[in-house]
Design goal:
The structure is a single chain. It contains 20 helices and 14 strands. Helices cover about 45% and strands about 15% of the residues. The chain is an alpha/beta fold. The longest helix is centred in the last third of the chain and has 16 residues. The strands form three sheets. It has a six-stranded mixed β-sheet, sandwiched between helices. A five-stranded parallel β-sheet has the order 9-6-7-8-14. Strand 6, helix 6 and strand 7 form a beta-alpha-beta unit. Helix 3 packs across helix 4, helix 5 packs across helix 10 and helix 12 packs parallel to helix 14. The two termini are about 40 Å apart.
């Protein structure tokens, strides 16, 4: 597998280099030189395969000979050992539940796959692999649990002070071992900027073996394609072949993976990018002007991103043709008040409790359906378990939320963090010295 930089298509690197470097030197993002098209017979008969079978076929097509087939199959069987069910809510609406992994968020797919790929690719390197990650909520917990105890790795998670939920904070700050957490007095965008600057700092690059666990890393993006194919397989088994996906979107890695799946041959009718008031992409799709703004804190904190990193990947997949992209992707925005109304409406209509990110995706799907009635299944992605956001729900709804074992196990655990201002020199010093 060869990859190029979105800033320079002549820059080519193998899969291993892209995984460990995360970002090209020119500050673009890595993309496959060739996006393979999967066999049409395979796609037409997805319902005959297991989730792991489908994941192996996709990963094999993308990664090629970068890993032995037996190693790749072992990684997939180990990493994707939980379900991603499509649950019908009515005759035309279903929810794809992606929160059945250890951190109760969709990012378990990417984090677990990536950690095992990195371990397999670095067996011959004796240096510690320093994994940096910025999180606006769920990424941190997924990466922490995905890499916890993985030999030869040290993970540093940056998260914005006061802007993640209590459960999310416990998931990323109470692990110890090879997991470190930094509480940054700023926004997610500030955290992300610190990580990006670290990768472009010559002194850090010379002293440390750095890589990223954010969705900017191609090894995070690849496994997120798996559940789009698996969702389609489940619908195919019910005789449904026309599907619209509504995706909660913050850093745009999730919908980017869906669009990659589409480019590989998955016959999706349309995608909906559902955002909160951090609406850089919806404004771009309407006006043609890409104008990032500082992120605004909302109830859907994992989507509080003002300058989504993965947008350059999405534009690259469509040759930077906004009109071509807009024919396949619509985008809708929701305020906090609309999000809370959607949470209540979903429960009143279906008896289903949705997290705020999931509620925004449902609302976007509803708005799309009002404008585009048709005979298709609207599938909205549930990206996190509602128990991670107890402060969002009214008391009577909060009482309906089952408490998973993973959350009960966090009770009484001690938070271990380092406080940091938005100061790259201080961050650099911490990475170099641990202080």
């Amino acid at each position: 597998m060869q990859l190029y930089s979105t800033n320079n298509k002549e820059l080519r690197v193998p899969f291993k280099e892209a995984v460990f470097n995360s970002l090209p030197a020119d500050k673009g993002l890595y993309m496959p030189v060739i996006i393979p098209t999967l066999d049409a017979h395979f796609i037409q008969n997805l319902a005959q395969f297991t989730f792991q079978d489908i994941a192996f076929q996709i990963a094999s097509a993308l990664i090629g000979d970068a890993l032995p087939a037996s190693t790749l199959r072992r990684i997939i069987d180990d990493a994707i050992d939980f379900e991603a069910p499509v649950r019908p809510l009515d005759s035309g609406t279903a929810v794809l539940e992606l929160f059945h992994g250890p951190s109760l968020a969709f990012k378990d797919f990417g984090a677990r796959f990536m950690s095992r790929v990195m371990a397999a690719l670095s067996q011959s390197d004796e240096r510690v692999l320093d994994v940096l990650v910025a999180t606006s909520g769920d990424t941190g917990g997924a990466v922490a649990l995905g890499f916890l105890g993985v030999p030869g790795t040290r993970v540093t998670i940056l998260y914005p002070k006061g802007k993640v939920s209590p459960v999310q904070e416990l998931q990323l700050t109470t692990n110890g071992q090879n997991i470190r957490a930094i509480e940054v007095d700023g926004t997610f965008d500030d955290c992300q900027a610190l990580v990006k600057e670290a990768f472009n700092n010559p002194e850090l690059k010379a002293a440390l073996r750095l890589t990223s666990a954010n969705s900017i890393n191609i090894a995070r993006l690849i496994p997120q394609t798996f559940y789009y194919f698996w969702a389609y397989a489940q619908l195919q088994a019910q005789g449904i072949r026309k599907v619209v996906f509504s995706v909660p979107s913050g850093n745009f890695g999730n919908i980017g993976a869906g669009l990659l799946a589409y480019k590989m041959g998955l016959p999706v009718e349309h995608f909906i990018a559902a955002t909160n008031v951090n609406d850089t992409v919806p404004r771009f799709l309407q006006s043609g002007r890409y104008e990032p703004r500082p992120s605004v804190q909302t109830l859907a904190n994992a989507m509080d991103v003002g300058n989504p990193s993965n947008w350059v990947r999405i534009m690259d997949m469509f040759g930077n043709d906004r009109e071509a992209l807009a024919r396949l992707v619509s985008s809708y925005t929701a305020t906090d008040a609309e999000t809370q109304d959607a949470i209540r409406a979903i429960f009143d209509r279906y008896g289903y409790v949705a997290c705020p990110h999931t509620a925004i995706a449902w609302l976007a799907a509803k708005r799309y359906r009002q404008r585009h009635p048709g005979t298709y299944a609207a599938v909205f992605l549930s990206t996190a378990h509602p128990c991670k956001f107890p402060e969002v729900f009214p008391e009577e709804l909060a009482a309906k939320i089952p408490m998973p074992t993973q959350v009960n196990d966090l009770e009484g655990r001690e938070k271990q963090t380092v406080a940091l201002e938005v100061d790259f020199d201080a961050f650099k010093r911490y990475l170099m010295t641990g202080q």
